[in-house]
Input
Amino acid sequence: MILKEKTKTEKPTKDNPNAAANVLFITAEDDLNDTIAPRLRKAGADVDCVFSCDDKDTQELSFTSPGFENMISRCSPKLVIADPIQAFLGRNVDMHRANEIRPIMSYLRCLAKEYNCAILLIEHLNKNIGGKSLYRGLGTVDISSATRSILMVGSNPEDDTDKGIAHIKTNCGQRGDVVGFTISNRGLEWNPDTNLTAEAIEGYSNGNGNARPKGTTALDNAKNFLEAALKDGKQASRDVVLEAMQRGILESTLKRARGELGVLCNEREGFGKNTIVYWRLPNADMR
Output
């Protein structure tokens, strides 16, 4: 399961859309040989069409590094998967800052167009239980805003083994139907007869299902948001307030949450209209 020179395989065409296509799968979370490869084989994948790179290479890989485009060029994939997105943004990129994320998303869009492939980014949910699904990804909301299509994976609130993939955003057409599946010792099995709806999956993920805490208030949501936004260090207050508003959190509620968490607001930079006020959690990293 390491990157190799592209092989001659039958490619999908208009007359044969189901022919195997190459996939580039980079991951910073699961071991390729112990986890990824066995899962692919259980799912009936043609592993000869799946490309990746050694773990030691993954540690230094980012979306904008020459190595990333080089891998796409070498294996000619129809699908590129990155799991998770934050592992490949680059060492100095703050995923909570829109001005740092937007150029990367634009670059990925250009790569997808140039190499005629789809790029799938795996993004985990933040702790903002009760917030809108589109705004529950880690980092700035601009990640979701710049993405053309978003799928959410979730479960039946009454049966955690009954899972589905819901199409919660699309800029390229109508939303697709929910695709059901289950996971067992046999691996992943598709369930074409699922009764799951997108609303049920979003409800489960947003805290409205039985497997999530109930009674979450707007203040709780704001506190969860602040803890997630500031967990990696100080942030400019204007960026935090803007993102909170984009997530549907009122500024008055945010101020209450800031007070209850004891957020420090005494660090400033610049003068006059150009003054930047930084927010930081108490006892947090001084970065």
About this structure: The chain has two domains: 23-205, 218-280. The longest helix spans residues 98-115. Residues 218-280 form a domain with the Arc Repressor Mutant, subunit A fold (CATH 1.10.10).
